[in-house]
Amino acid sequence: MTPTSQRIEIGSVLLAQPQHLSAEQILAEVRRHGLRVSKATIYNTLNLFVRQGLVREVNVDPTRTFYDSTTHPHHHFFNADTGELIDIPPNSVVFEQMPVLPEGTVQDRVDVVIRLRNES
Amino acid sequence: MTPTSQRIEIGSVLLAQPQHLSAEQILAEVRRHGLRVSKATIYNTLNLFVRQGLVREVNVDPTRTFYDSTTHPHHHFFNADTGELIDIPPNSVVFEQMPVLPEGTVQDRVDVVIRLRNES
DNA sequence: CTGTGTGCAAAGCTTTTGCACTACT
DNA sequence: AGTAGTGCAAAAGCTTTGCACACAG
């Protein structure tokens, strides 16, 4: 986990604020800052960050993976019309009842995605 | 929406029982039944079925889309160790509180995914 | 000089598109 | 013959892999 210039820059871009970025957006941003970097390095670095627990992957849109700089448990709104992903404030989703887990398994985490459309 | 042999066979395979299949699995199954069909037709047909409301897409694993023959609202367990997707019985997930939606949007649907791991 | 670990070109996926073709009218 | 709609080869796009290279010990 050597802190190379690519890794530092990718980390700075994504972790600057709570946000959800695709690999493509991160690549564009890092290049805009003047660093020469390939798409493969973006992916490799993001996967590394995910394994290290620095960022979280969010899968809602099958066409692209979002990387989320907020790692503590929280949920998402996904606007199907705009492709926008918005954090749901913690504690605004509360469960009254949860199912029994299948035999031999333990719970890893719970993802709630509320899909939205723009009001006609 | 002409009922061609390809469409009938794909429909039979997927809708035979409540299940979650990937495009790859459906292709294999349809071919095992002796029908000559391309992957593109599988995708085109499944997308058509989704638009018609016959099946639902489920996105949990970024590497593949699952097609779910159960269309009424329900949630899923996803076993991250096995890649297995299991229906959660309806009514076993109950919300006590839900967030206010962003301005100008309406709710489409809510997806809850409980990620599991095998017990060590 | 050796070994660990990086960054990227090329390869490997899944999924979509464009077009020849079919089957009704 | 015209037209609406199908099925698939080829293309597109996202992600991973394999390898040349760099740097620390």
Q: For the residues shown, what is the average pLDDT of chain A?
A: 94
For this structure, the quaternary state is homodimer
Give the SSE order of chain A as H and E letters: HEHHEEEEEE
Radius of gyration of chain A: 16 Å
Q: Mind summarizing the main beta sheet of chain A?
A: 3 strands, antiparallel
Q: How far is the N terminus from the C terminus of chain A?
A: 49 Å
Shape summary of chain A: globular
Helix vs. strand class of chain A: alpha+beta
Strand share of the residues of chain A?
A: 25-35%
Compute the number of strand runs of chain A: 7
Proportion of residues in helical segments of chain A: 25-40%
Instruction: List low-confidence stretches of chain A.
Output: none
Largest interface: A-B, 39 and 39 residues
Number of helices of chain A: 3
What does this structure look like?
The structure is a homodimer of 120-residue chains. Chain A has 120 residues and is an alpha+beta fold. Helices cover 29% and strands 31% of the residues of chain A. Chain A is built from 3 helices and 7 strands, in the order αβααββββββ. In chain A, strands 1-3-2 form a 3-stranded antiparallel beta sheet. In chain A, strands 5-4-7 form a 3-stranded mixed beta sheet, with no helix packed on it. At the A-B interface, strand 6 and strand 7 of A face strand 6 and strand 7 of B. The structure holds a DNA duplex (25 and 25 nucleotides).
What's a quick, concise take on this entry?
2 copies of one chain form a homodimer. Chain A has 120 residues and is an alpha+beta fold. Chain A is built from 3 helices and 7 strands; from the N terminus they run αβααββββββ.
